[in-house]
């Protein structure tokens, strides 16, 4: 189960770069994510789409990185490194923080599979609503769980705590 969530998350992080990111949300991405997005070649974008489509259709997470390596060894290595980082991070979390992280990444995975399998991107309102739910769940965590999550996922934590996310939530209410 955890492996499946991690592989989905890795694919989501990589494949998100294949799709146009709405301009108003691009500045929510970390600089490394922006750099990654800008540096993908057409070959890498196509490899990601092919592997993502296989995953969306079959759910077979066991071969995802292997298939990606066949199509683009460098990109496969990047995905494998990202997978290892996420796996280590998940394992080091306490129960409450791990459960929260799994929920967040499970939602991201659902969105990813939906985008890849249907080709339809979520609407701005759908994104806003998901962000609002994520922030509410983050705020409900104990201080210990928040600290653990922040240590392992500082970029995501900064997003949950950012003014831009709060503005996004507020605009969803209006």
UniProtKB/TrEMBL annotation:
Keywords tagged on the record: Coiled coil, Lipid-binding, Secreted, Signal
Coiled coil: none
One example GO MF annotation: lipid binding
UniProt xrefs under InterPro entries: Gp-FAR-1 (IPR008632)
Subcellular location per the Swiss-Prot or TrEMBL entry: Secreted
A Pfam family per the record: Gp-FAR-1
Keyword Zinc-finger included in the entry's annotation: no
GO cellular component, one term: extracellular region
Similarity remark: Belongs to the fatty-acid and retinol-binding protein (FARBP) family.
Name recorded for this polypeptide: Fatty-acid and retinol-binding protein 1
Lineage of the species this protein comes from: Eukaryota, Metazoa, Ecdysozoa, Nematoda, Chromadorea
């Amino acid at each position: 189960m955890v492996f499946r969530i991690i592989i989905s998350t890795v694919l989501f992080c990589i494949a998100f770069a294949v799709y146009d990111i709405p301009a108003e949300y691009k500045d929510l991405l970390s600089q490394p994510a922006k750099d990654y997005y800008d540096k993908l070649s057409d070959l890498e974008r196509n490899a990601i789409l092919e592997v993502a489509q296989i995953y969306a259709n079959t759910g077979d997470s066991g071969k995802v990185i292997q298939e990606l390596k066949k199509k683009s060894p460098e990109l496969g290595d990047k995905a494998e490194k990202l997978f290892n980082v996420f796996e280590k991070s998940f394992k080091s979390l306490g129960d409450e923080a791990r459960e929260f992280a799994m929920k967040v990444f499970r939602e991201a995975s659902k969105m990813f599979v939906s985008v890849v399998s249907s080709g339809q991107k979520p609407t701005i309102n759908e994104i806003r609503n998901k962000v609002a739910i994520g922030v509410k769940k983050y705020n409900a965590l104990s201080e210990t769980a928040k600290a653990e999550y922040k240590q392992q996922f500082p970029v995501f934590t900064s997003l949950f705590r950012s003014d831009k996310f709060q503005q996004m939530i507020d605009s969803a209410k209006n």
